[in-house]
Structures are given as C-alpha cells and as structure tokens.
Design goal:
Strand order of the largest sheet: 1-11-2-3-4-6-10
Largest sheet: 7 strands, mixed
CATH architecture of the largest domain: Alpha-Beta Complex
Radius of gyration: 27 Å
Shape: elongated
Order of helices and strands: HEHHEHEHEEHEEEHHHEHEHEHE
Structural class: alpha/beta
Number of helices: 12
CATH class of the largest domain: Alpha Beta
Helix content: 40-55%
Number of strands: 12
Length: about 325
C-alpha cells in the first residue's frame, strides 16, 4: 500500500513538473508572439491640425445656415490649397510620457524622440512633451530625461507640459525642457531621493534561522534584506542616497540655473500656481491650450508608440520591481 502511494506521489510530481514546463514554454511563445506583434506597428502618427479642422467643420455644419456653411467650406478649401503650396509651415510634434515606477515607457519615448529628430527642422519646429509621472527608479528616469535632452542638443525647442503631476523623476524630465507649463493644480517638484529596504534579520535570528551572505568588495552589499545592518553599512547607504540627491540637483540646475535649490531642492512638492512663484515652471497653461494656440501657426502632429500588452512581462516586472533598485526619485 505504501509503495503504491509512493508511486502515485512520484507520478503526480512528474506530471506537475511536466505541466509547469509546458506552461512555461507556452508563456514564452505567447510573450514572443506579443512582442513581435508590438514591433509590427512601432509608431502611431495623428495629424492634430487636420483632426481639429474636421471637428470644427462638423460642428459648424450643424449650427450654421446652409448658405453660410457653403461659404465657409469654400474658404477652407482655398486655405487648404494655399497650405499645400507652402510646405514650410513650422511643425509642433506632440509626445506623451505617462510614467510608472520603473519609467518602463522609456523604450517608447526613445522611438518617438529618434523619429522626431530624424524628420524635424530645428530652425523652426518645436516639440511639446506631455509628462505625467510621480517619479520612480533613478536609472529609468535618468534615461528618460536623457532622451528629451537629445532633442534639446539637436537644437529643437522643447516645451514640457504638466497637466497633473511631474514630481521627482517626472520633474527631472521636465527640467530638461526650455519651457515648463503646468495646470494651476498640477503637482511639480519633489527634488529628492528615497530608499526603502525592509530587513528581517532579527526575525530570522529569533527563530534560529541562519543566513550567510558572501560578497567580494567591502560595500558590495552595504544594506541587505536578510543580513544584519551594520553602522558602517548604514552610513555608506545614506551617503549613496545623498550623492544621488546632489546629482539630481546638479542635473536640474544645468537646465534651470535660475532655481534656488536651497529652497526647492528639499524633496517638497508644490502646486502649479505656487511652483510658478518659485521658478519651477514658466507659466500656467494646460497642454490643451498650448496645442490649440499652436494650431493657428503650426502644423501639429502627435506621435505615439502603442503600449505593449505583454501581461507576462508586466506581472514578472511587478514581482521583482523593488528588489531590483532601492533608490527612487
């Protein structure tokens, strides 16, 4: 009887392992297929100038007398012909960045920025970057800010728009722009660094659980989740946070030298109206207003990159997110 139970258990274990292997393989195939599908369509380009004209004409067709609408339509057709004769109208490229903790949208941003640099004329074209992010991992937002800096270094005039929040890493990105506009109650600032590391060493010790960690290099692991935190390790960890904060402030100061970082570089955040007085932004204006104003003098084009719907990647990333990097902007 015991032997039979052992055989059944062994068979069940083999079946479970086989099932996990098959399931894992299936997930890899699905992941690869979804990734390939995402790359089939890397950019979505929408002509906001044309869209605005169509929307306006649709409304006017409803509210104007037929005779007046015909006159307007005739005028618009003539205007369209004139525009086709003059292809040198300045362009406004509209990009969007909605950041998560890892700034995982940086890959899409990279594609958008490269495309804009390729087709734009720095002498007359502008870029509006709509940023929505409370911040996150240092390396992710550092790279995102560097992407925006590429456009500035190519001579393009860059405007950052904050309709809701661009704090910490989000503000690191916005600071790269020549101008920052924000809604009255948009949250900006938070020039600071935070690190959170749970430690369960005392819990393990209480239950007589030994933990060994072998490292090469004095500060390879100054703070760990399971090992004992020493005064020296804590001091080194705090120094790294301080160094990162100084790097953050230096980066912001490079693009916005007028800022008093003693006043605004303390990790606090402010609403748009308050931020204007402190010099964190340049004027109160929403991205919608900026685009509408630009429609009169520029050809407005929005560039998007389809968001990956790879659920496998999203779940895996969420599971290891905090273990990968303890420092957050």
């Amino acid at each position: 009887m015991t032997e039979m139970l052992l055989n059944v258990g062994a068979f069940s274990l083999k079946s479970l392992v086989l099932g996990l292997v098959v399931f894992g393989g299936l997930l890899m195939v699905i992941s690869a297929a979804m990734k390939a599908k995402a790359h089939e369509k890397e950019l979505e380009v929408e002509d906001l100038s044309e869209k605005s004209k169509k929307q306006t004409l649709t409304i006017q067709a409803r509210i104007l007398p037929p005779k007046d609408f015909k006159k307007l339509l005739k005028k618009e057709k003539k205007s369209l012909k004139d525009e086709k004769k003059h292809h040198d109208k300045p362009k406004l490229f509209v990009l969007s960045f909605k950041g998560d903790m890892k700034a995982s949208q940086v890959d899409q941003l990279r594609t958008q920025v490269s495309s804009v640099i390729e087709v734009s004329n720095p002498q007359k074209d502008q870029v509006l970057v709509c940023i929505e992010s409370p911040g996150g991992m240092v390396h992710g937002y550092g790279l995102a800010a560097a992407q925006l800096k590429r456009m500035r270094e190519k001579g393009l005039h860059v405007v950052a728009a904050v309709d809701q929040v661009a704090a910490s890493g989000g503000y690191l990105m916005a600071a790269v722009a020549h101008e920052i506009i924000a809604a009255p109650f948009a949250v900006v600032g938070s020039i600071g660094v935070v690190a959170q590391v749970p430690n369960i060493h005392r819990l393990l010790k209480k239950h007589d659980v030994d933990y060994e960690e072998v490292t090469s290099g004095k500060f390879k692991r100054s703070i760990s989740y399971l090992g004992k935190i020493t005064d020296e390790g804590r001091e080194h960890f705090e120094k790294k946070i301080g160094d990162t904060h100084e790097l953050f402030k230096s980066f912001v100061k490079e693009s916005r030298p007028q800022l008093d970082l003693e006043e605004v570089g303390n990790g606090d955040h402010w609403y748009g109206s308050e931020a204007l007085k402190l010099g964190l932004i340049d004027r109160i204006q929403t991205s919608d207003d900026f685009i509408m104003e630009s429609l009169h003098s520029k050809h407005v084009i929005q560039i998007k990159t389809p968001e990956s719907k790879n659920l496998v990647k999203k779940f895996a990333s969420a599971a290891i997110e905090k273990a990968m990097a303890p420092f957050y902007l």
